[in-house]
Amino acid sequence: MRTGIRWLLRIVFLLVLVAACGTFIPRPLIAPAKASAAMTHRILLLSGPIHTDIAIPLDAETRAAFSFLGDTGFPLSHPNAEWLIIGWGGRAFYLETPTWAELKPVPVLRALTIDRSALHVDLAGHITEPQPTVTAFDVSDDQLARLRDFISESFVRDAGTVVPIPDAGYGEIDRFFEAKGYFNALFGCNTWTAAALRSAGLRTGLWNPLPQALRLSVSVYN
Protein backbone atom coordinates (compact mmCIF):
# COMPACT_ATOMS: atom_id res chain seq x y z
CA MET A 1 0.00 0.00 0.00
CA ARG A 2 2.73 2.47 1.01
CA THR A 3 4.78 1.50 -2.05
CA GLY A 4 1.80 2.24 -4.28
CA ILE A 5 1.28 5.65 -2.68
CA ARG A 6 4.98 6.48 -3.08
CA TRP A 7 4.85 5.61 -6.77
CA LEU A 8 1.70 7.68 -7.22
CA LEU A 9 3.36 10.67 -5.56
CA ARG A 10 6.42 10.24 -7.76
CA ILE A 11 4.25 10.20 -10.89
CA VAL A 12 2.37 13.31 -9.76
CA PHE A 13 5.65 15.09 -8.97
CA LEU A 14 7.08 14.11 -12.37
CA LEU A 15 3.99 15.40 -14.19
CA VAL A 16 4.12 18.70 -12.29
CA LEU A 17 7.85 19.03 -13.03
CA VAL A 18 7.38 18.31 -16.74
CA ALA A 19 4.47 20.75 -16.96
CA ALA A 20 6.50 23.46 -15.22
CA CYS A 21 9.48 22.90 -17.52
CA GLY A 22 7.18 22.91 -20.53
CA THR A 23 5.79 26.27 -19.45
CA PHE A 24 8.96 28.07 -18.40
CA ILE A 25 11.46 26.75 -20.94
CA PRO A 26 10.82 28.91 -24.00
CA ARG A 27 10.47 27.70 -27.54
CA PRO A 28 12.42 28.82 -29.47
CA LEU A 29 15.08 28.89 -26.77
CA ILE A 30 16.76 32.02 -28.18
CA ALA A 31 14.50 35.00 -28.69
CA PRO A 32 14.32 35.98 -32.37
CA ALA A 33 15.49 39.43 -33.38
CA LYS A 34 12.73 41.97 -33.11
CA ALA A 35 11.10 42.64 -36.44
CA SER A 36 11.55 46.10 -37.87
CA ALA A 37 8.23 45.93 -39.70
CA ALA A 38 5.23 47.71 -38.24
CA MET A 39 2.93 45.60 -36.08
CA THR A 40 -0.28 46.54 -37.84
CA HIS A 41 -2.44 43.47 -37.19
CA ARG A 42 -3.97 42.00 -34.04
CA ILE A 43 -4.45 38.29 -33.42
CA LEU A 44 -6.17 36.74 -30.42
CA LEU A 45 -5.62 33.64 -28.30
CA LEU A 46 -9.04 32.53 -27.01
CA SER A 47 -8.85 30.28 -23.96
CA GLY A 48 -11.39 27.94 -22.40
CA PRO A 49 -11.04 25.48 -19.51
CA ILE A 50 -9.31 22.83 -21.67
CA HIS A 51 -9.16 24.24 -25.20
CA THR A 52 -7.74 27.21 -27.12
CA ASP A 53 -8.61 28.82 -30.43
CA ILE A 54 -6.93 31.45 -32.56
CA ALA A 55 -8.79 34.46 -33.94
CA ILE A 56 -7.39 36.35 -36.90
CA PRO A 57 -8.83 39.57 -38.35
CA LEU A 58 -11.24 38.91 -41.19
CA ASP A 59 -9.82 41.52 -43.55
CA ALA A 60 -9.56 41.35 -47.34
CA GLU A 61 -6.28 39.43 -47.20
CA THR A 62 -7.71 36.80 -44.84
CA ARG A 63 -10.81 36.38 -46.98
CA ALA A 64 -8.60 35.88 -50.03
CA ALA A 65 -6.27 33.44 -48.23
CA PHE A 66 -9.21 31.34 -47.00
CA SER A 67 -11.42 31.66 -50.06
CA PHE A 68 -11.42 27.86 -50.21
CA LEU A 69 -13.72 27.91 -47.16
CA GLY A 70 -16.26 29.96 -49.06
CA ASP A 71 -16.20 27.33 -51.80
CA THR A 72 -17.59 24.81 -49.27
CA GLY A 73 -20.51 27.05 -48.27
CA PHE A 74 -18.88 28.54 -45.18
CA PRO A 75 -20.15 32.17 -44.90
CA LEU A 76 -16.74 33.81 -45.12
CA SER A 77 -18.27 37.02 -46.50
CA HIS A 78 -20.75 37.46 -43.64
CA PRO A 79 -21.20 41.24 -43.30
CA ASN A 80 -21.10 41.27 -39.49
CA ALA A 81 -18.02 39.06 -39.10
CA GLU A 82 -14.80 40.67 -37.81
CA TRP A 83 -12.81 37.58 -36.83
CA LEU A 84 -12.10 34.14 -38.29
CA ILE A 85 -11.76 31.65 -35.43
CA ILE A 86 -9.90 28.37 -35.88
CA GLY A 87 -9.22 25.51 -33.51
CA TRP A 88 -7.73 22.03 -33.93
CA GLY A 89 -8.67 19.03 -31.84
CA GLY A 90 -9.61 15.38 -31.49
CA ARG A 91 -12.29 14.44 -33.99
CA ALA A 92 -14.51 12.34 -31.71
CA PHE A 93 -14.39 14.73 -28.73
CA TYR A 94 -14.90 17.78 -30.96
CA LEU A 95 -17.89 16.40 -32.84
CA GLU A 96 -19.64 14.58 -30.01
CA THR A 97 -19.15 17.04 -27.12
CA PRO A 98 -20.66 20.41 -28.04
CA THR A 99 -21.35 21.01 -24.32
CA TRP A 100 -20.08 19.45 -21.08
CA ALA A 101 -23.59 18.07 -20.49
CA GLU A 102 -23.10 15.86 -23.56
CA LEU A 103 -19.82 14.33 -22.39
CA LYS A 104 -19.57 10.64 -23.36
CA PRO A 105 -17.01 7.99 -22.35
CA VAL A 106 -15.90 6.94 -25.85
CA PRO A 107 -14.78 10.42 -27.03
CA VAL A 108 -12.98 10.91 -23.71
CA LEU A 109 -11.19 7.56 -24.15
CA ARG A 110 -10.12 8.50 -27.66
CA ALA A 111 -8.90 11.89 -26.46
CA LEU A 112 -6.79 10.20 -23.78
CA THR A 113 -5.29 7.71 -26.27
CA ILE A 114 -5.19 8.68 -29.94
CA ASP A 115 -7.76 10.03 -32.37
CA ARG A 116 -8.04 11.53 -35.80
CA SER A 117 -8.11 15.31 -35.83
CA ALA A 118 -10.49 17.97 -37.07
CA LEU A 119 -10.43 21.73 -37.55
CA HIS A 120 -13.29 23.82 -36.20
CA VAL A 121 -13.91 27.07 -38.08
CA ASP A 122 -16.22 29.82 -36.90
CA LEU A 123 -16.86 33.55 -37.24
CA ALA A 124 -17.20 36.24 -34.58
CA GLY A 125 -18.21 39.86 -34.51
CA HIS A 126 -16.70 42.32 -32.05
CA ILE A 127 -14.60 40.68 -29.31
CA THR A 128 -14.23 42.80 -26.18
CA GLU A 129 -10.75 43.39 -24.77
CA PRO A 130 -9.40 42.98 -22.22
CA GLN A 131 -10.95 39.92 -20.65
CA PRO A 132 -9.42 36.89 -18.89
CA THR A 133 -10.10 34.48 -21.76
CA VAL A 134 -8.63 36.70 -24.48
CA THR A 135 -4.90 37.33 -25.02
CA ALA A 136 -3.98 39.73 -27.83
CA PHE A 137 -0.79 40.07 -29.86
CA ASP A 138 0.22 42.64 -32.45
CA VAL A 139 1.95 41.16 -35.50
CA SER A 140 3.34 42.36 -38.81
CA ASP A 141 2.06 41.65 -42.33
CA ASP A 142 4.62 38.88 -42.75
CA GLN A 143 3.88 37.28 -39.39
CA LEU A 144 0.14 37.21 -40.08
CA ALA A 145 0.78 35.75 -43.54
CA ARG A 146 2.85 32.94 -41.99
CA LEU A 147 0.07 32.24 -39.48
CA ARG A 148 -2.48 32.06 -42.27
CA ASP A 149 -0.22 29.64 -44.14
CA PHE A 150 0.22 27.43 -41.06
CA ILE A 151 -3.54 27.21 -40.56
CA SER A 152 -4.21 26.62 -44.23
CA GLU A 153 -1.67 23.79 -44.32
CA SER A 154 -3.46 22.08 -41.41
CA PHE A 155 -6.46 21.23 -43.61
CA VAL A 156 -6.63 17.85 -45.30
CA ARG A 157 -7.14 18.27 -49.04
CA ASP A 158 -8.61 15.84 -51.54
CA ALA A 159 -7.55 16.71 -55.09
CA GLY A 160 -6.66 20.18 -53.81
CA THR A 161 -10.00 20.76 -52.07
CA VAL A 162 -10.53 20.88 -48.30
CA VAL A 163 -12.82 18.22 -46.87
CA PRO A 164 -15.82 19.33 -44.78
CA ILE A 165 -17.21 16.87 -42.25
CA PRO A 166 -20.87 16.41 -43.27
CA ASP A 167 -23.58 17.71 -40.94
CA ALA A 168 -21.03 18.71 -38.28
CA GLY A 169 -21.26 21.99 -36.43
CA TYR A 170 -22.48 23.51 -33.20
CA GLY A 171 -24.60 26.22 -34.79
CA GLU A 172 -25.73 27.67 -38.11
CA ILE A 173 -22.39 29.20 -39.11
CA ASP A 174 -19.52 27.08 -37.77
CA ARG A 175 -18.13 24.11 -39.67
CA PHE A 176 -15.79 21.17 -39.09
CA PHE A 177 -13.15 20.03 -41.57
CA GLU A 178 -10.83 17.05 -41.79
CA ALA A 179 -7.38 18.00 -40.45
CA LYS A 180 -3.83 16.74 -40.70
CA GLY A 181 -2.26 14.97 -37.76
CA TYR A 182 -3.46 12.82 -34.89
CA PHE A 183 -4.68 14.01 -31.51
CA ASN A 184 -3.67 12.65 -28.12
CA ALA A 185 -3.62 13.96 -24.57
CA LEU A 186 0.08 14.90 -24.69
CA PHE A 187 0.06 16.62 -28.06
CA GLY A 188 -3.40 18.02 -28.52
CA CYS A 189 -5.32 21.15 -29.30
CA ASN A 190 -3.20 23.49 -27.20
CA THR A 191 0.12 22.27 -28.56
CA TRP A 192 -1.28 22.89 -32.07
CA THR A 193 -2.26 26.41 -31.02
CA ALA A 194 1.22 26.96 -29.62
CA ALA A 195 2.78 25.83 -32.90
CA ALA A 196 0.49 28.20 -34.79
CA LEU A 197 1.57 31.11 -32.59
CA ARG A 198 5.22 30.21 -33.13
CA SER A 199 4.65 30.27 -36.88
CA ALA A 200 3.73 33.94 -36.40
CA GLY A 201 7.04 34.63 -34.67
CA LEU A 202 5.77 34.42 -31.10
CA ARG A 203 7.42 32.41 -28.33
CA THR A 204 5.60 29.79 -26.28
CA GLY A 205 6.60 27.27 -23.67
CA LEU A 206 8.42 24.13 -24.77
CA TRP A 207 5.29 22.04 -24.13
CA ASN A 208 1.88 23.51 -23.33
CA PRO A 209 -0.83 20.84 -23.13
CA LEU A 210 -3.20 23.05 -21.12
CA PRO A 211 -4.62 26.51 -21.89
CA GLN A 212 -3.42 27.87 -18.55
CA ALA A 213 0.19 26.86 -19.29
CA LEU A 214 0.05 28.28 -22.81
CA ARG A 215 -1.46 31.56 -21.66
CA LEU A 216 1.18 31.91 -18.94
CA SER A 217 4.09 31.12 -21.26
CA VAL A 218 3.04 33.57 -23.96
CA SER A 219 2.57 36.30 -21.38
CA VAL A 220 6.10 35.68 -20.06
CA TYR A 221 7.94 35.54 -23.40
CA ASN A 222 6.06 38.04 -25.59
What does this structure look like?
With 222 residues, the protein is an alpha+beta fold. Strands 6-2-3-4-5-9 form a six-stranded antiparallel sheet. The chain has eight helices and ten strands. The model has no long low-confidence stretch (mean pLDDT 89). α1 runs parallel beside α8 (211-221) and α6 (141-153) runs antiparallel to α7.
Summarize it:
The protein is α+β, with helices and mostly antiparallel strands. It has 8 helices and 10 strands.
In one word, what is the shape? globular
Gyration radius, rounded: 18 Å
Number of extended strands: 10
- Helical fraction: 25-40%
**Element pattern in H and E:** HEEEHHEHHEEHEEEHEH
Structural class: alpha+beta
Secondary structure tally, helices: 8
Biggest sheet, spatial arrangement of strands:
6-2-3-4-5-9
Q: Strand-residue fraction?
A: 15-25%
What is the mean pLDDT? 89
